[in-house]
Amino acid sequence: MERLDAFMARANAAYYAAHDPFRDFTTSPEISQVFGEILGLWAAVVWEHIGRPDPILLVEAGPGRGTLMADALRAIGQVAPAFGSALRVHLIETSARLRAAQAERLPGAIWHEGLETLPLEPFVLLANEFLDALPIRQFVKRGDGWTERFVHRGQFVEVPVECFHGLADREGGAGGVAELNEPALAIARAVGTRLTNQPGAALFLDYGPEHSAAGDSLQALRDGRPANPLDAPGAGDLTAHVDFEAFANAARDAGAVTHGPIPQGIFLARLGLFQRTDRLARMRPAGQAAGLIEAARRLAEPDRMGRLFKAIAFGGPGRPPPPGFERYLPLRIG
Ligand code: SAH
After folding, report:
1. Protein residue with its CA nearest to atom 15 in ligand 1
2. What lines the ligand 1 site, CB under 6 Å?
3. Which helix (H) or strand (E) segment is 4 a member of?
């Protein structure tokens, strides 16, 4: 019998060690090159805000195929060459297989298993669909108390828990499920603590509701289709919604200023997704141009990836809001 987070960690480590995850799902940087390009320019503006430190770490957590970072570096080289010369690429990646794929596109990068070994220097951290892959715990409301879910031979087994890990205000009705992503909260605290010592910022794009919500969001994709998350660990990709409210609270408790979450569609539109896409499209043959525009719409439209996906940023005290998170801009989509 294994606690759910141990099961999920083992299943995803096996999955990312053995599969090309992009066979089963497509992420924003794989949909449009403009995604990585505008995040690179976001990092360049943040670098200006914090006084152009040299060197600066440009960090990505969970870089997948390295597409986001490659697109970001290309745009930075064109538009912000001084930032390009000052930055050092650091990647947080546990999968040896994906590290090898990243090394082909990002020569000169330095890899880490986690945040702990990053040098204590000014930094900009980017992460897309990283938090949703981290292992969660699940608790179930039963009568007056709570149980925790373990996995045994492909089935959930519930074990009563004494104390309820600070999730009491999230209870649903009887049988309601509350989720806890401890590694994500540890990352929020670690980034928050760094930001009280080093100038910098962090940007996370991921999927989940704006406020903590009760409910079981664990899901598996296998061979491109939804599958039972408890079957065949390692054969499919396991993810869960990110609890942005808890994530932001953990960063604030550690001393960071938090911005958002705001819907991904609004964030990307504010950063110029459509203007940049239009400019690229005009330089391409008609068939490719239509594909680029369609890709931008997929990232931003509310009934596609524009609303369920969110952007959230952490910064240091006393800095202006990072690009896209300006408070006075209207929050509309569609
Ligand atoms: N950001 C990429 C890939 C998302 S898939 C994209 O948008 O396309 C999740 C990524 O996080 C993969 O690179 C995976 O190997 C990595 N990853 C998963 N769990 C991790 C962990 N605990 N520590 C570091 N990297 C992890």
Report:
1. 95
2. 12, 16, 21, 27, 29-30, 62-64, 68, 92-95, 98, 128-130, 133-134
3. helix 4-18
Q: Which of 19, 92, 94, 105 to mutate to test the pocket of ligand 1 (most atoms within 8 A of CB)?
A: 94
User: Range with the lowest mean pLDDT among 17-26, 57-66, 116-125, 269-278?
Assistant: 17-26
Alpha carbon of 285 to ligand 1 centroid (Å): 34
Number of domains making up the chain: 1
Q: Is residue 321 part of a domain?
A: no
Atom 3 of ligand 1: nearest residue by CA position: 64
| pLDDT band with cut points at 50, 70 and 90 for residue 296 | very high
Boundaries of domain holding 233: 8-133+182-315
CATH code of residue 249: 3.40.50.12710
Q: How many helices (H) and strands (E) does the chain have?
A: 11, 15
Q: Within a domain: residue 48? A: yes
Q: Is residue 153 part of a domain?
A: no
pLDDT at 144: 82
Inform me whether the pLDDT recorded for 207 exceeds 70. yes
Provide the 3-class DSSP secondary structure of residue 112. strand
Q: What pLDDT does residue 21 have?
A: 75
Question: Is the pLDDT score of 5 beyond 80?
Answer: yes
Ligand 1 atom closest to Cα of 95? Answer: 15
Rounded-to-integer distance, Cα 249 and Cα 20, Å: 34
Q: How far is the CA of 297 from the centre of ligand 1 (A)?
A: 24
d(CA 215, CA 175): 9
Nearest CA owner, ligand 1 atom 13: 64
In a domain, 302, yes or no: yes
Confidence grade of residue 214 (pLDDT, cut at 50, 70, 90): confident
Give the tokens for residue 18: 């053995």
Residue 98 · residue 92 · CB < 8 Å? no
Model pTM greater than 0.90? yes
